[in-house]
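Whether sequence alone determines local backbone shape is best considered at the level of individual chains. In the encoding step, the backbone of a single protein was reduced to a row of integers, each denoting a local shape. For completeness, the protein is quoted in full, as a sequence line and a line of structure tokens.
***
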Amino acid sequence: MTISASEHFPQFTPVEYLEWEAQQELRYEFVDGRISAMTIESVEHDRIATNFCNLLQAHLQATVCRVFNSKVKVQTLASNAFCYPDLSVSGDVRDRSANNFITHPCLIVEVVSPRSEVYDRGEKFALYRQTTTFSEYVLVSTDKIWLDLHQRNDLGNWALNSYASGDEVALKSVNFTFDLDRIYEDRIVDIGE
């Protein structure tokens, strides 16, 4: 099936979506049979995601966990959706041989911009929560030094903690504590800031 980015997308099955997307230059998310093109990230977005990825990879280097960047999809099995988080981590053996997507992340990170924030905090978070192995969701701001951490407790409820410049962030799923300012290193700062 060949469809250009400017055409209206028909409803796809998950298999049709995977076959179609493999032939595309851009990345597309798949939710409820609908396809949505991923937006192009800013330099600031990329810098923050890269810094965070480097910190996680260094910490998890000698473990069974793997860090995946924004080129790897996460499939939520309950709804058969495919989303592209900015970062995800899985230590699940079922994801060790993954080629195109993982299904059992423990940690997902989204670097949010004003354009993506509503989707990332709402529908996308709801999709990710359907995954039983998923226990931490990190939302990192591009506008200021700010991070929201959603953590699932033993009862299955989600608690929110927010962090600002100078704060230490503790990610339980990967046993990692870091200074929030480290993911904003080499940040592009407005002269007016």
About this structure: The first helix runs from residue 14 to 21. Confidence is low (pLDDT under 50) at residues 1-6. Residues 119 and 174 are 25 Å apart (CA to CA). The chain has four helices and 13 strands.
